[in-house]
Amino acid sequence: AQSVTQLGSHVSVSEGALVLLRCNYSSSVPPYLFWYVQYPNQGLQLLLKYTTGATLVKGINGFEAEFKKSETSFHLTKPSAHMSDAAEYFCAVSASAFGNEKLTFGTGTRLTIIP
Amino acid sequence: ETGVTQSPTHLIKTRGQQVTLRCSSQSGHNTVSWYQQALGQGPQFIFQYYREEENGRGNFPPRFSGLQFPNYSSELNVNALELDDSALYLCASSPGDPGSYEQYFGPGTRLTVT
Question: Is the pLDDT of residue A64 over 60?
Answer without folding.
Answer: yes
